[in-house]
Amino acid sequence: MSASIRLQPGDTIGILGGGQLGRMLAQSAASMGLKTHIFCPEQNSPAFDVSAQNTIAAYEDTAALAAFADAVSVVTYEFENVPGPTAQHLASKVPVRPGVRALEVSQDRLFEKEFLKKSGVAIADFAEITSQADVETAVQNFGGQGVLKTRRFGYDGKGQTMIRSKKDIGGAFERIGNTPAVLEALIGFDCEVSVIVARDLDGNCESYDIARNHHENHILKTSTVPAGVSEQTQTAARKMAERIVSSLDYVGVMGVEMFLVRDGDTEKLLVNEIAPRVHNSGHWTQDACLTSQFDQHIRAVAGWPLGSADRHSDAVMENLIGRDAEDWHAVLKDPAAQMHLYGKAEIRDGRKMGHVNRISPKTG
Amino acid sequence: MSASIRLQPGDTIGILGGGQLGRMLAQSAASMGLKTHIFCPEQNSPAFDVSAQNTIAAYEDTAALAAFADAVSVVTYEFENVPGPTAQHLASKVPVRPGVRALEVSQDRLFEKEFLKKSGVAIADFAEITSQADVETAVQNFGGQGVLKTRRFGYDGKGQTMIRSKKDIGGAFERIGNTPAVLEALIGFDCEVSVIVARDLDGNCESYDIARNHHENHILKTSTVPAGVSEQTQTAARKMAERIVSSLDYVGVMGVEMFLVRDGDTEKLLVNEIAPRVHNSGHWTQDACLTSQFDQHIRAVAGWPLGSADRHSDAVMENLIGRDAEDWHAVLKDPAAQMHLYGKAEIRDGRKMGHVNRISPKTG
Fold it and tell me: Where does ATP bind (chains A, B) (predicted)?
């Protein structure tokens, strides 16, 4: 394998994961004349309908992985929990972009925080936790409050517990399953924002306008652009995101979640989490920018130059979660809305079924 | 079958034809949670990579057509030369949209012109031609000039011959193969423009801003929006297009090509040709409008409400024809350009390999 390989139209990108992100990546690849090959264990995955080839196999199936590596020019992934040995095995045969290091860092909250701190971006205070005693010490150091999160496999609010007062401390480590964790200082933040940043094989970066995110039940509900923050904050957020991807020698799109903390007239940003992939809070780019985050990721992993991340319209992205998807006809009737559905047959509570981008003329 | 059937997300649209238009229709359908089933005779068709199902069979294969009709909720097509019996056979089993009548009219230049005239839109003078003697009479009536075109199977300048002076008259009927034809009066037009119009199952119409088209070697090279015509001409063009689709009780997107004739300060429009399908001169809508022509056609044939045809940016669409596609890397380096490639393996002279949309802030 060559780390610097660049694809030609007609070449194939392998994608680990067949959910909605894999599906939208496959659609972007096809628009630019590239083929995709999806590898995932689930039958009837959303991405299968829009990709040229599929392999249904376990991520631990080394024979299937070897055949997959032979069939593609480069491998990318739609989720950060790709098992380490899977990524290592593939990386020995074919370039894996964004890369194995990005997976290692983002799969473990402790590694992630240590990496971010070392990169020089601001983050909330944190402490490594391996016991209930650690929880008690750390909470005391952080002013009696904090969020306890498992180091691995947490998402959409799973694997975490909030400590707001003394009564939340007892049994906290048990509540998250007595598993290695970190305690984060509780931040009195104004809102959560995110930056979608892309970096190409030559080290060039393009970052999108920052989005203001609103969650319901720990799941992203809306992303709004413009985010209503100062120009300085916008610039600072982009710089932080670009610093992070450059520190990782990253190739592809990354979602960087940040807390916006207001102190009087000043705005401060703390990086909360990074996702080494296209990100739900960047779905608005599909309809408000010439180059969407999916196009951008495909360009980067193909070894191609990035497109412009400029925005031509204002946008509000709304996730269609669970039974929200039953309102599809109302969405279609809204002339400002573009409906995106993921082709999932069964509606389940909390399941991301699709999203809507509502577009209006650019104001800022 | 029910003529008024409306699809649900997850339902399947059958598409006759697996070229780039079928491919881009399939991509739009997938974005809105619909599946597609491509029917076409050619192996390795561009649309196969992005559709859930494919049937490779001749358009005359009634058994294959019957199985196809059973597998889909509605049928549409990417080209107007669907054989009449194929369309009739399918229409007896499943709704065919835009419809059999639209095919009949657009497959035959004489029927098309008679229909347009009856609809009350302005067209160039024409005469039915069945012999060389007819050519001679008609040319005389039209001031010694004209364009002789076969009634059927003409496209991209094929099946036509220009009569500019006396010397072109002799042998003209033979040059187009002694086949039934029409002679059109030669129009001293300023430019060719086109309107992409959509009509839904309830009769609502949405038309896009008109595009100015430039051809090279009888093949569309660029479409530019705004077209640089007066507001009245813009309105007149939309009205003509909407009149045409309403006259046909049409469901779907139609491309209407018109000649713009300037007489001093006044602009006059003559309809040249209609295409009962998404149209090459509407590809700019993918990147300059919230709802592309492909989305719009899918919405219409699904029995869904139309999206807004509003334009958020200026656009120049350029076709990548034949070896133009070798310049793909230069296209990628232009930050204002969005590259669309059709996944065709082999470059051939005159073959449409892809297109580029170059986008800029809206000026008019």
Answer: 109, 149, 154-160, 184-187, 192, 215, 272-273
Counting Cα atoms < 13 Å in the Cβ hemisphere of B37 gives 18
How many Cα atoms occupy the beta-carbon half-sphere of B314 within 13 Å?
11
Average pLDDT of the segment spanning B222-244 = 97
Which of A62, A96, A104 is CA-nearest to residue A76?
A96
Query: Is A125-184 assigned to CATH 1.10.1740.10?
Result: no
Which amino acid belongs to residue A289? C
CB contact, 8 Å: B308 with chain A? yes
pLDDT of residue B156: 65
- Given this model, what pLDDT does residue A155 score? 65
Return the SS3 of A309: coil
B49 vs A35, A308, A332: nearest CB: A35
What pLDDT digit, counting tens, does each position of A99-123 carry? 999 999 999 999 999 999 999 999 9
CA distance A52 to A348: 28
Which chain A residues contact residue B333 at CB under 8 A?
Answer: 305
Report the residue of B15, B31, B38, B204 to disrupt the A interface, i.e. the one with the largest count of A CBs within 10 Å.
Answer: B31
In chain B, what residues touch A313 (CB-CB under 8 Å)? 290, 312
Residue pLDDT, tens place only, B296-319: 999 999 999 999 999 999 999 999
Strand locations in B185-251, DSSP E? 191-199, 205-207, 211-216, 219-225
- Min Cα separation A310/chain B (Å): 9
Domain B12-96 architecture = 3-Layer(aba) Sandwich (3.40)
Please name the amino acid found at residue B48: F
Q: A258-292, pLDDT tens digit by residue?
A: 999 998 889 999 999 999 999 999 999 999 999 99
- By the 10 Å C-beta count (0-12 exposed, 13-18 middle, 19+ buried), B93 is classed as middle
**Amino acid letter, B156:** D
**Contact residues on chain A for B303, CB-CB shorter than 8 A:** none
Distance from the B214 Cα atom to the nearest Cα atom in chain A, whole angstroms: 24
Residue A89, H or E segment: helix A84-91
Structure tokens of A78?
A: 């739609």
Mutual angle of helices A100-107 and A109-119, in 10-degree steps: 110
* Residue B30 in contact with partner chain A when CB distance is under 8 A: yes
SS3 call for B68? helix
ipTM confidence = 0.94
Stated length of chain B: 364
Nearest CB among A299, A325, A338 relative to B290 is that of: A338
Provide the token pair at A26. 């496959």
Segments making up each domain of chain A, as ranges: 12-96, 125-184, 191-361
Helix then strand then coil, % of chain B, to nearest 5 = 30, 30, 35
Residue B1 predicted with pLDDT over 60: no
Domains B12-96 and B191-361 share a fold: no
- pLDDT tens digits for range B103-118: 999 999 999 999 999 9
SS3 per-residue string spanning B273-332: EEECCCCHHHCCHHHHECCCHHHHHHHHHCCCCCCCCCECEEEEEEEEEHHHHHHHHHHH
Homologous superfamily assigned to A191-361: ATP-grasp fold, B domain (3.30.470.20)
The token duo for B254 is 């139609």
State yes or no: pLDDT of B3 exceeds 80. no
Say if CB B181 and CB B150 are below 8 A apart.
yes
